[in-house]
Amino acid sequence: MFNSTERLYLKMALLHIVRRKGRAALISVMIAISLIGLLLMEGMYEGMMVQITQNSIKTGSGTVSIQDKEFRSDNNIKYFIAKPQKITEILDAQEGIQSYVIRLSQRGLIATAGYSQGVNVTGIDLENEALHSQLKNFIIKGEYRFGKRQRGALIGYRLAKKLKVDIGKKVIVTMQDTHNEVVSVALKIEGILKTNNMAIDSNGLLMDIGRLRTLTGIEGATEIAVLLNEQDDDTAVKRSIMSKLDDPKITVYTYKELYPSLHEGEAMMQTYSRISSAFIFIVATLGIFGVVLVSVLERVREFGIMMAIGTQFRDIARLIIYESLVITMSGYIAGALIGGGMLWYFKQYGLDLSGLSDAFAIFGMDSSIHAILKIEYFTSAFLSVLVATLAATVIPIRTLKKRNPIQSISENT
Amino acid sequence: MILLKMAVRELLSHKKRSIVTLLLSAFSTALFIFANALNNGSHNQLIRSSVEIYPGYMQVTNRAFEDNPSFDNLIFDIANVKNRLQGIEEINASAVRFETYALYSTNEQSIGGMFTAIEPENEAEVSRLKRSLVEGEYLTEDDTNALYLGVELAQRLKVGVGDTLSFISTGADYSFAADNLVVKGLFKTKLYEFDNGSGFVNKKYFDEVMSSGNIATHIIMSPTDISQIDTITLNVQKALGKELEVKNYKTTLEDLILAMEIDTIFGYITLGIFFIVIFFVIGIFAFLSVYARIRQIGVLRAIGTTPSQVMGMLLIEALILGFLSVGLGGAAGAYATNHYEKHPIEIASLADVDPEEYAKQYNMVAEVTFPAEYNPPKIMVEMLIMLLLNLLTVVYPIVIINRFTPTEAIRYV
Amino acid sequence: MKTLLSLFLFFLPLLAITPDAIIKNVEHNIQSDSGYSKITMSVTTARGERTMKMESWNRGHEKSFIKVLYPRQDRGITFLKVESTMWQYVPKIEKTIKIPSSMMMQSWMGSDFTNDDMAKESSIVDDYHARITSEDTNKYTLTLLPKEDAAVVWGKIVLEVAKEHFIPLRAIYYDEDGVQQRILYYSDVKVYGSRYLPTVMTLIPQNKKSNKTVVTMEDVDFDVRIEDERFTKNALVRYSQ
Known about the structure:
The structure holds three protein chains of three kinds. Chain A is an alpha+beta fold. Chain A is built from 15 helices and twelve strands. Chain A has helices spanning about 5-20, 20-60, 85-95, 125-135, 155-165, 200, 210-215, 235-245, 255-260, 260-295, 300-310, 315-350, 355-360, 375-405, 405-410; strands at about 65-70, 95-110, 115-125, 140, 150-155, 170-175, 180-195, 205-210, 225-230, 250-255, 350, 370. Chain C is built from five helices and 13 strands. Chain C has helices spanning about 1-5, 20-30, 115-120, 125, 235-240, and strands at about 35-45, 50-60, 65-70, 80, 85-90, 95-100, 130-135, 140-145, 155-160, 170-175, 180-190, 195-205, 210-220. In chain C, a hairpin with a 5-residue loop joins strand 10 and strand 11 (about 180-190). The interface between A and B is large, with 40 and 41 residues.
């Protein structure tokens, strides 16, 4: 890998570093710590954003959502999709789709003997929903089932708390059917959900879609939520479905259209972490620069002697760069290992902040944050450290050249 | 005195290093001050707008109202309560509300919603309801049958300014109440749920149809000094007695307060990473400056300078740099803070955040501007912290240097 | 107000009588296929008492029509219930309003009854399984548990019925956790042919002990001719006068 001269320089670089281990250590530790900090920040913040987005996408609209044009502004069951089969045929043939579910929603009133309040009733198919949104994983109490003859329901944990109901208890849901008649149904609570999608947690009741169809007299659906293999295909898939569907009454929304603030939050978070890392590396460059400059200046005579015995200035410069790189890269490796290890841990086990879970839930976050671990964090950090190191050596090398090392031998410093 | 001279001479002889250190430290001071001010400022603004849109800073209700908001648990003698409030100087303004539920009905449809009586003029002092007007006119004290309606609810009811609709409700004496109303104005607070479910009428008129003379559900108050709100709350509670309950926004808007605490924590984490790096660099510079002078210091020690005098000299250097940089940074930070208090940063230009979408998703007010909070005492404290941090950076170099005996130091290469 | 009664029904026979037969007998006492009565409803709260007077027509459980006579400002308000749908006509605003699902748990005319109480079409037999849980010389005690699909909020109703003439005495309503929510007392029995009707019903909600709603029936006619037209939406306006 290295030829013998280069190996010699490397050895010299290492020797010098050992001689001045205090300052070398300072730089390594600085880089390691800032890298750990940056990795954690990036990985955790991105983990948070992904979590918020996923919570909304999975249990909510999907990556793209197909609805009647009017349904979004007025969540009224009268704006329903009469023939979902027509759409599902298109979806079945569509490329890039991971899964889709058909849902039917209606607003209503939920009541117990002591309390009543508004509720969003959504009819779902348990099996499809489990595959699609992993809804099963959000059950915090009870079972993921609608029980005997689909007489059960799942409700959000905040709603359950307000109604003071628990597993096995009965709630009465009253709503309007397709003819605007009032219909009521008794449902047994089978499971309590904590999805961190506020729409479900504080206002949602899920019941069997077949049962809800019988109750409301609507055979269709109010929404088809679609998850894509690649989240970024949203616009392409939307266009493709729209053109195949060719129905002016029905619209396809992407999650970016349905939750614009999510997408903006993501973009802001990214800009924020990019600016932060740029800033940190600029400051770090200054630190490296100081150390390199001092170490060069105190060895002007040493370098003069090397040049006097025939070493090229280019090689001296290389020696200086090697020295700096060994120091910074050891910091990088330490930082990447520790930071990467921590991220891996938090990816695996999550960072538990359950003390703050209520506040987190407002933003659609879980109480445990799972980090994201991306190779590009490390490659971009590697490049940044490399650039910072090289940039930090430019001025010291130039200064050294100006001092003219050979002459300096005769001078008495 | 001689120490001071030596310190100054040392700093001047390494101008570049001194300037870089000084600028770094000045920059971090300014950043620290500004980041905190921005954080506090935008949080204060968020609280202010969330509170002022409708909930109000402080409220009085019947003590039993929260658990059981029935007409048995009202404030039954407003005149008396108002009298007692008048004697409390810390209360700036107060307004009476009667909140209840009504069925709003047009010829086509009926929708349930909040039906609230307000004192139009007093209300304008405690909330932004008046300022949220988007069409038509706000209510006056002489209005009868005039309704001030949320835009979203108006849309659902398909009515506009000048249209007639009816309400049906239950009077404060449990009597049946119904009347025709003319939409006088439409309001939009951007709190989606609120705009989608509330209507207001003049209390004098309301009292006639709802038999609610001298009765209210809430009295909303704003304090003269918001920072003293907990004390004021206690004082008002004492003045009003046990029957009534006084609460301030910290209780009524608990979720919001929690959410902001989280935001603060994340801000500190990022700031913490910045600081670690910056202080490493400053530390490295201090370390290098001491190392470069090991021989010189050895000489000083040899001619009789005591270690504590050496330490004194180094500390004075750090102090000079510290004072200068913190002064400079503090001034810059204070200037920026002051400036951005008057001219808030516009977030909308940074990312295309649509406050309405944000509000709809989180049911929270989204602010498009981020003002800073200009608070001189706070800035002083922050500057002091930075000065101490600056002094801390010379601790390690001093420890190192005092490890050398004078002879070792002189021979040090 | 037969509708009200029908909600809280109960009745007994002698010998080895079945719970359903008891209820049938109670229902016979308080309801007919074509009934009329004048009703006085007084609502007592912590802050005083209000009295309303009205007229009521009913056809079994399914259909009923109510017209308010007093207080004067409410005179002419009419209600129509057909199966589980309820309409209301308010002369002051000249509007017929269909009570939406979101209002179902709201108080009916300021009383301790809810709109839901008024609208529920079914008889006790449709919604509950009845069991005789105790019996002494004077009365049967029946426990009514909601059928699995019954859209009723109660967890249990305990009904006491006098053995003599199957006159209902008291119904206690429990929530799902077995906590008493309200008690309905029957009193002042009057005889109308084969029927023994308690003409006064007193409802006491257990969570608002100072509240009380007393319903008194007069001029009861169990066999009145009612034209079909009365149970249509048009009747709301026409019979408002």
